[in-house]
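Researcher: Re-running this chain for the archive, since the previous output was lost when a drive failed. Same request as before.
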Amino acid sequence: MKIENNFWNTVKKKYSIYLILVALFIVCSLANPNFLSVNNLTNISRQLSVTTILALGATMLIISGMLDLSSGSVLALAGVFAVSAYKATGSLLIAITVGILTGVICNVINAIMISTFKAPPFIATLAMLTVARGVALLFTKGQNILQLGNFVELGQGSIGIIPIPIIFLIVIAIFTWYLLNHTRFGRSLYAVGGNEEASIASGINVHKVKYTAFIINGLFVGIAGVLFMSRVNAGLPNGAINYEFTALTAAIIGGTSFSGGVGTVGGTLAGAFIVGFLDNIMNLTNVDSYMQQIVRGTIIALAVIYDIRTRNRRANSMLGRIEDKGVDGK
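Model: Regenerated structure tokens:
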């Protein structure tokens, strides 16, 4: 009986997020027959690709004890710059490069404020959120950029039956998984997020780790900006509003801890699909838009509460083991 209980406790601990995802998929399938249609699943995959790419960047930052509230605004700025570059040159490569450089530059500024000047990540990235959105609106004079031509192929095209945005997502997810699990940088991210002072004492270059994390996040945000504008077939300076919160929600639901040092790519992917499925089924069942906002906010609150309780249980368990060792030592 004890072995069986341990088995189920292990399953719940490691795979609960995936079981929830499967259960939600089944519920959505039963709630509306259109959910399983090819067109709907294709639309979900295209929409999810952008926010999930942002969520993967958010996961790395949160693991290292930081966060990015500016990703939605930087996405919009990178997207409108990329669209403008494409209209000026007709080159997709140049457009993608401009979008990526924009995302990286904005995130380097975030890193300077946070790592060099010791600004709290919340305040620093909140400032970038405002500045990046303002620059995007100023650059476009508040107008949408239309008539993008072949630029739409990136967001709306497919290779075989696989949408191009999903291909980008798969490549980025594999890249992130490899970084976190098979590189010194990945180990350093977990160490810095778990205990920054101990990381410094052990010889980890914390500044380098933080700068690298933000640069990679900027790369992801730039790519997401190009894909977003391509999918909607316009350069929208007011696009992707609140996408940063969707990304953070996906990461937290997927088990990434706000306290740092904990998180996985698989969990974030599952969290992103849970959020995407919920949004989609609410739209299909004509749930009021105001009610949808309430549901999303509730999900964020529950995810944070769960994270806090999990962290407290982990701390209490560790304290209990220390006390037991102390008793045995006597």
